[in-house]
Amino acid sequence: MTSPRLTHLNDKGEAHIVDIGDKAVTRRRAVAQARLSGQAETIATILEGGLKKGDALATARIAGIMAAKKTADLIPLCHPIPLTHVSVDIKADGEASLLILASAETTGQTGVEMEALLAASTAALTLYDMAKAIDRAMVVSDLCLVEKSGGKSGDFVRTS
């Protein structure tokens, strides 16, 4: 027996990839966020490009984009989809944290929420990796879908 909310279960209750063959092709977009918090000095060093490993912001952006393109390889039951655009923006959020916003877009039969979430989390983890030598106590948090548009389930905008 399947739950109407758990669409990745078949009639036997087993996980399977959802058949999207009958879904309409629409423009779909999703934005996700993650946060990296650490010592104020660490965040300043990242923003100033002062890490020994190089430009952490550029590396994290590329890592996020690359991760979005590999979502179907990393997350079971995700459809491989052609992405038309992916962006990763990183900005200071106070003195002791960075906010990572990732957006993913496609024109297709299924959404790009997982691609945006994977891009945001991978960018945050890349920043952590590049700065861990100076601050192992950093925290990656607040990974969530911020908004989505397009598709059968309609639009979503996080209000909190």
End-to-end CA span: 34 Å
Biggest sheet: strand arrangement: 2-3-1-4-5
- Could you estimate the helical fraction of the residues in percent? 25-40%
Note the total helix count: 4
Number of domains: 1
Q: CATH topology, anyone?
A: Alpha-Beta Plaits
> Could you tell me the mean pLDDT?
90
Percent range for β-strand residues: 25-35%
**Overall SS class:** alpha+beta
Q: Report the CATH architecture.
A: 2-Layer Sandwich
Protein name: Cyclic pyranopterin monophosphate synthase
Catalytic activity: (8S)-3',8-cyclo-7,8-dihydroguanosine 5'-triphosphate = cyclic pyranopterin phosphate + diphosphate
Pfam family, one: MoaC
GO molecular function: cyclic pyranopterin monophosphate synthase activity
Structural description of this entry:
The protein is an alpha+beta fold. The protein has a single domain, classed as 2-Layer Sandwich (Alpha-Beta Plaits). It is built from 4 helices and 5 strands, in the order E-H-H-H-E-E-H-E-E. Strands 2-3-1-4-5 form a 5-stranded antiparallel β-sheet. Pathway: Cofactor biosynthesis; molybdopterin biosynthesis. Catalyzes the conversion of (8S)-3',8-cyclo-7,8-dihydroguanosine 5'-triphosphate to cyclic pyranopterin monophosphate (cPMP). Keywords: Lyase, Molybdenum cofactor biosynthesis. One of its GO terms (biological process) is Mo-molybdopterin cofactor biosynthetic process.
